[in-house]
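Hi everyone,

Forwarding the result from last night's run.
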Amino acid sequence: MVSHRSAGVLWGLPELGRWDWRLHVTDPLLEKTHVGRGVVRHTGVLTPRDVVRLDGNAVTSLLRTVTDIVHVVPLEHAVLVLDHVLHLGTVPRDALERECTARAGGRGSRVARTALDLADAESESAGESLSRVTMRELGVQPPVLQQEFTTDAGRFRVDFWWPSTGVVGEFDGRAKYDDRETLRAEKRREDAIRRLPQVTGFARWCMREAAAPALLAPVLLAAGLPLGRGWAERPR
């Protein structure tokens, strides 16, 4: 059965970094995973509910595919995939909880468990998902996602909000400011949010910073957001 990241492509799951061009399949008759030329054959038990037909192909179900992927990829990739399915509502969290619990102690179970704890249905982009993984590494307090504010210029929603410190965070990746009017509108929006009495700091960053703790750290610190002890004590 087509499985893992190959099945993820068929299900439209997001990828992070370079695409894995190899074909991934699951063969219940194998005793251990075999990596061949262009094909990775995974071992594993498949029940009838784990297999569906998609575009004429025998493919692991969406739940099984997501579970397989988050047990073999790095944390940031796993969080991205989980955020995606939770945001769309295509896979319920309780089903993911059951699958991860069933694999506890096995290969990749620690990363999968951490990713599920971090995953949030409110996350709306790959940059937001990646930012939260980097924030975890920096020891940043988990933010509130998609917080709405009523300002003198209208009602606006921000990507990240830390109510205890009054810091707003925005990932600049969803929109490109190609014209002056769009840029002016965004400037008015930010200024209106900054004027709110509960907002004491404002941070913006792009994908480059989202993927690198050493680059995101000074951005957050400049906005007044405290980092974990290890990062806060590093010379800058």
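The chain has a mean pLDDT of 92.

Cheers,
N.
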